[in-house]
TrEMBL record:
Pathway: Steroid biosynthesis; cholesterol biosynthesis. This is Delta(14)-sterol reductase TM7SF2. It comes from Cyprinus carpio. It holds the Pfam family ERG4_ERG24. InterPro entries: ERG24_DHCR-like (IPR001171). GO terms for biological process: cholesterol biosynthetic process. Keywords: Cholesterol biosynthesis, Cholesterol metabolism, Endoplasmic reticulum, Lipid biosynthesis, Lipid metabolism, Membrane, Oxidoreductase, Steroid biosynthesis, Steroid metabolism, Sterol biosynthesis, Sterol metabolism, Transmembrane, Transmembrane helix. One of its GO terms (molecular function) is Delta14-sterol reductase activity. GO terms for cellular component: endoplasmic reticulum membrane; nuclear inner membrane. The chain crosses the membrane at residues 46-65, 86-105, 117-137, 209-228, 249-268, 274-295, 344-363. Catalyzes the reduction of the C14-unsaturated bond of lanosterol, as part of the metabolic pathway leading to cholesterol biosynthesis. The keyword Transmembrane applies. The keyword Translocase does not apply.
Length: 407
């Protein structure tokens, strides 16, 4: 509902403060926060603003790289399919290369970036607010982008709804799709750069450990897989059905880069050494989750493209009144959302090396489970309206959503 979305936006702002508190909770020292100055940990610093701005401008420039494929996505308002430049992997590799060059040249000190983590979060919050205000005050009108309108509720001003939730589905600046840019280039590449910076910090501190390496490797594998298959984001519900506003922009600027990398930050502040034998089951759990995630998505996408492919001949299906067939065997005979199950297992695997002295490094996987649970419920409501009795029969045959015999 609109009210819940506005409440979510307020929560997002509070989560920015909560994120700083979580990061502070990971620290072993108890230095006080200060707005400016050197008497404690500064939560505002103009250098951090320059860092976040430079990263954002760099990603804008790399979007124009003459490499990568151009693919078609959803249908625009003008009846033509929207086109997207998929060169996120190239942008990521060049960003890492630039970061390593600056580090080896002595221009960049990774430890200083980590020490400025609080001011980086507040700088990202400020820039996301400015970015959102620009989209709101100077809306981008293109023939292909749907304009979202809201009813006057009496309680909530319409302009506030347009600012918080967004007033355009697919705004574009030149060839740059704004939603695609903040999701992939700011969110995921920003997350990867925080991980790389933490790794370089560990090298500077001579504080690398097996647990830290495992978490960083797991997360970078996950991010690389996403960037290699960048087109997969174009079919997600968030990308196709939701406008872009302050909620989405703030989440991509602060939540994905800083909250997702929280387990790595925790291990830098509170090292946890694990035995090689303990790492084996953790690696197996991650590999299991990755295979479930990858193979179930492959099965789903392949069946959607060509249900008559011989590879799917042995799979059981239910015919839907909508004219499509629902898989009731294979990965989708195990649980109704196996790709989400794989996601959860992978995230749980990269939290385990942190040990059990604090709940803080496990907050990302808990938030992920809750988010995917909500998304699964939304998808199932949509499928029930579309497939009716066929969906009810599928739920009867496959009773579990995410975890067999659990949920």
């Amino acid at each position: 509902t609109v009210f819940s979305d506005l409440l979510l936006s307020l929560v997002c702002v509070l989560l920015g403060i909560s994120l700083i508190m979580m990061l502070d909770g990971c620290r072993s020292s108890s230095e006080p926060w200060v707005l400016l100055g050197s008497a404690g940990i500064p939560i505002w610093d103009w250098t951090s603003v320059c860092v976040v701005m430079s990263f954002t401008v760099l990603q804008v420039a790399l979007y124009y790289l003459p490499v990568g494929q151009v693919t078609e996505g959803k249908m625009g308002c003008d009846g033509k399919r929207l086109k997207y430049k998929l060169n996120g992997l190239h942008a990521f590799l060049l960003t890492v290369l630039l970061m390593l060059v600056l580090w080896f040249a002595g221009v960049l000190r990774a430890g200083a970036v980590m020490d400025s983590i609080f001011s980086l979060v507040t700088a990202a919050m400020a820039i996301s607010l400015i970015f959102s205000l620009m989209l709101f005050l100077c809306p981008i009108r293109t023939p292909s982008s749907a304009h979202v309108t809201y009813d006057n509720t009496g309680m909530i001003p319409k302009p506030l709804l347009e600012f918080v939730l967004g007033q355009s589905m697919d705004p574009r600046l030149g060839i740059i799709d704004v939603k695609h840019f903040v999701m992939v280039r700011v969110g995921f590449i920003g997350w990867a750069m925080m991980d790389v910076n933490y790794l370089l910090t560990a090298v500077e501190m001579k504080n690398s450990s097996l647990s830290l390496l495992l978490v960083i490797i797991f997360q970078l594998i996950y991010i690389l897989d996403f960037l290699i298959d960048e087109a997969s984001v174009l079919t997600t519900k968030e990308f196709t059905d939701e406008p872009i506003g302050f909620i989405m922009i703030l989440g991509e600027f602060i939540w994905i880069p800083f909250f997702s990398s929280l387990p790595v930050y925790f291990l830098l502040q509170r090292p946890n050494h694990i035995h090689f034998l303990s790492a084996v089951p953790i690696c197996l759990l991650f590999v299991t989750g990755f295979l479930i995630y990858y193979l179930s998505n492959e099965q789903k996408d392949g069946f959607r493209r060509n249900p008559r492919d011989p590879a799917y001949a042995r799979l059981n299906t239910i015919r839907s009144p909508a004219g499509r067939s629902l898989l009731v065997s294979g990965w989708f005979g195990w649980v109704r959302h196996p790709n989400y199950s794989g996601d959860i297992l992978m995230m749980f695997a990269w939290c385990l090396p942190c040990g059990f002295t604090s709940v803080l490094p496990y907050l990302p996987v808990l938030q992920c489970f809750n988010l995917l649970r909500q998304r699964a419920n939304e998808i199932e409501e949509s499928c029930l309206k579309k497939h009716r009795d066929a969906w009810r029969e599928y739920c009867r045959r496959v009773p579990y959503k995410l975890l067999p015999y659990v949920y």
